[in-house]
Amino acid sequence: LKEGKKNHFQKTIDELQPYDIAKIYSSIPAKHRTRFLLFINVEQIADLIQELEKDLQFEALTKLGIEKSGQVMDLMDNDDLASLLEHLSKDKMEELLSGMKKEESKIVQDIMNYPPETAGRLMTNRFVWIKDHYTIRETVEKLKTFAEYSETINYLYVIDQNKHLVGVVSYRDIILANENEKIQDIMYSRVISVTADTDQEEVARLIERYDFLAIPVVDNGVLVGIVTVDDIIDVVISEATEDIEKLSASGKAIDFDTKAYVAAYRRLPWLILLLFIGIVSGTIISQFEETLSTVVALAFFMPMIAGMTGNTGTQSLAVVVRGLITREVDRKTAAQLIFRELKVGLIIGFICGILIALIALVWQGSAVLGLVVGSSLIMTLVIGTLAGTIIPLILYRLNVDPAIASGPLITTLNDIVSLFIYFGMATLFINQLM
Amino acid sequence: LKEGKKNHFQKTIDELQPYDIAKIYSSIPAKHRTRFLLFINVEQIADLIQELEKDLQFEALTKLGIEKSGQVMDLMDNDDLASLLEHLSKDKMEELLSGMKKEESKIVQDIMNYPPETAGRLMTNRFVWIKDHYTIRETVEKLKTFAEYSETINYLYVIDQNKHLVGVVSYRDIILANENEKIQDIMYSRVISVTADTDQEEVARLIERYDFLAIPVVDNGVLVGIVTVDDIIDVVISEATEDIEKLSASGKAIDFDTKAYVAAYRRLPWLILLLFIGIVSGTIISQFEETLSTVVALAFFMPMIAGMTGNTGTQSLAVVVRGLITREVDRKTAAQLIFRELKVGLIIGFICGILIALIALVWQGSAVLGLVVGSSLIMTLVIGTLAGTIIPLILYRLNVDPAIASGPLITTLNDIVSLFIYFGMATLFINQLM
Fold first, then answer.
1. What is the domain partition of chain A in residue ranges?
2. How many helices (H) and strands (E) does chain B have?
3. What are the backbone angles phi and psi of residue B206, rounded to the nearest 5°?
């Protein structure tokens, strides 16, 4: 198929979605890819490149040569192009940008100047704006002229003579209106917009809340771009993945294709940190060596107490981190949440504490041991729950990502606290325990 | 505002987004809500109700009385209505359905018959279909007639005389085409569709992959509904939340508003399970009581070894669970992944093992203790990594949600294994350790 019959090949390609074309492209041997690129037109190459993995994107752009890659890059969505180029060295990037039209390369460079994870990085300028005094007929004419420039979303944004965003109409509104009606009479004028430096999570929250397909980005009232829902789905997925990475301290951006040594390198910092915190736990235990060697049975309950305290902290942490995704938290909500978790800690503390006290009594035949283990567990569970709630809230307050108080950190902190409480209680009752 | 001036009030409401109306409605005292509902029309009530919390939804429907609530429910999106009604008792549900138009209530009941988390549950019938032999002019006329029936997405689905889905056109295509062109000549005919029983994660994957705004649902080729991107964002968010809930065993559906005893009740099963697994760990340690009482220093390294093994398992687990969201895994990918994680386990095992051996040597002044601790850590880290990879893959293979092999389960399993290895090694070298 990919050898001779150019016509037949092109007809097949024309009917496929970009994702599928990219899949075929990735699967053919590298030496045939140059021919593949010769067989399709620049619009198709632009669509194809946007769907490829990063390394194949560069390969393809290099294969094309400066001039043609410039043409292709002119056609790519600016936000996608910006996120591709930012991974290149400065020289390579400037070389590629030199092949583009001046105004297009300027836009891409502007996008790259916005901080990461903001609306500015996600926005595209491939949208059609119309003026508020246009009639429907004028609008349709403008649409026919600029058809290829618009991402396929449903909205047209309306600006006044100062380029200020004043309204929005949908393609459907245009179809349903009469030819001579004016845009300003049919547009919806209470447009919700963001600025270029709005955090991408906030943009996602607005789009999710209002079920928008896109949201306009303004700079001092002037419309500068739009963020579309497909970018937002990617944001939602990557933010959730980041939360999970942080909560489980599993290392940044490890997927199925990551090389073993890279994955190990990304996970090691956490593990070495844990190792040293483990030494701290060890030092605490060594302080209680006498207690422990007197009542060796104390060691039996160590993993249980540490494990449960660690887990209860993670449970609270997960609730707070996920809750912050869809809700803002003020002082009042924070206080309510802490009070709620205090109650949760007390309930689960008393139930688990009494349960383990009974088990310890039956298993080791010592009421005092039961009392020590049970009362320690009540205290550590309450403290664990509160730590898992308060620490991420403080981080949130300080504008630090609360998920960074990740699972293992909270777990290990709780480990240390629980060892102190447990061995402290045991030392207190050491005479009764013997 | 909400008291007297009905006209002014209505004008304000008309300009607000449903989400904001819902926020105002929720914030006013319950006794004023009835009056609020009287002041706005049924379309607005329908939009409002879709944005409310579950309990306020029922409250509002009850306030309206059977007849008016029926009118409102006729106007609601069928998928939203279905997910509201499924939480009611059978009697209450039938009472509410009785106020609706026959054909509308039938559709809602049909939706509720699909299994949860499938395309059938998410789809709406509020879309406009057109026939392939329509001209653009006929299409526009049909659109004008059915304007209020369509969700505001960009696509029109095209069916043939047998109601089979044969193509799709966008509103933009309609605007750009000539009045006399036929739909079948401008439509895109390689439509990607799903069936009503397609899993919602698969639907989300397709919409994300192809950047669609909606995807059609077919039953034996016949178009029965569409799933829109706003529902998919909700799916992506709730699936990610579920993953986090399972990975951290934080209990189902606990948010900031959950009552303390409900939250405690949802978390307790995990904690009690952990408690009993903790007893198992304790029993293992008690088997090695002699070893432990001979060399109490062994206890110092217990939390570190268990903690690190648990965490390395969670790291692998998180990679597998998140990877499965965007990728299907076949036998070959699984084998590659396991091999990769084996290598990762070996790398981090040797680095951390040698490090802790040196620390143990310096701290406790015993080369044998260093050897025991270090070699145990190497083994437990390799096993922990593999367990965190293989267990979720097996569950995936068995069509069980892999996230259910949740953090604490993998952690605790690794706890037990690591205790066995550690004390086993120690017992082996007990003469040298003394």
1. 6-113, 129-228, 260-433
2. 21, 6
3. -65, -45
Select from A140, A143, A152, A283 the residue whose CB has the most chain B CBs within 10 Å, as the one to mutate to test that interface: A152
**Burial grade of B25 (CB within 10 A; 0-12, 13-18, 19 or more):** buried
- Choosing among 3.40.630.30, 3.20.20.70, 3.10.580.10, 3.90.1150.10, the CATH entry for B129-237 is 3.10.580.10
B279 in contact with chain A, both atoms CB, cutoff 8 A? yes
Cβ distance of B315 and A351 shorter than 8 Å: no
A17: contact with B, CB 8 A cutoff: yes
Assess A414–B contact: CB distance below 8 Å, yes or no.
no
Is B183's Cβ below 8 Å from some Cβ in A?
Answer: no
User: pLDDT (tens digit, 9 = 90+) per residue, B253-290?
Assistant: 666 777 888 888 888 887 888 888 888 888 888 888 88
Distance CA B305, CA A215 (A): 50
Nearest to B234 by CA among A238, A205, A316: A205
Mean pLDDT value of segment B348-366: 90
Which chain B residue has the Cα nearest residue A309?
B271
Q: What is the pLDDT of residues A155-199, one digit of tens each?
A: 888 999 888 999 998 887 888 888 888 998 888 888 889 998 898
Band (pLDDT 50/70/90 cuts) for residue B250 is low
Contact B278/A at CB under 8 A: yes
CATH superfamily placement of domain A129-228: CBS-domain (3.10.580.10)
A208 closest CB neighbour out of B237, B286, B343: B237
Chain A residues within an 8 Å CB radius of B305 = 278
Contact state of B244 with A318 under an 8 Å Cβ cutoff: yes
- pLDDT tens digits, residue range B38-83? 777 777 888 888 787 777 788 788 787 777 877 887 778 777 787 7
Q: Quickly tell me which residue has 């799933």 as its tokens.
A: B227
Partners of B170 on chain A (C-beta within 8 Å) are 152, 171
Nearest to B248 among A150, A153, A407 (CB): A407
CATH number for the domain formed by residue range(s) A6-113? 1.25.60.10
- pLDDT, chain A, mean: 82
Q: Chain B, 360-399: which have a CB under 8 Å from a chain A CB?
A: 363
The CB density around residue A394, as the number of other CB atoms within 10 Å, is 13
Calculate Rg over the CA atoms of chain A. Answer: 30
Q: Name residue B155's beta-bridge partners.
A: B170
Q: How confident is the model at residue A217 (pLDDT cuts 50, 70, 90)?
A: very high
In CATH, which superfamily holds the domain spanning A260-433? Answer: SLC41 divalent cation transporters, integral membrane domain (1.10.357.20)
Contact A246, A401 (CB under 8 A): yes
Interstrand relation of B194-195 and B214-219 (parallel, antiparallel or unpaired): parallel
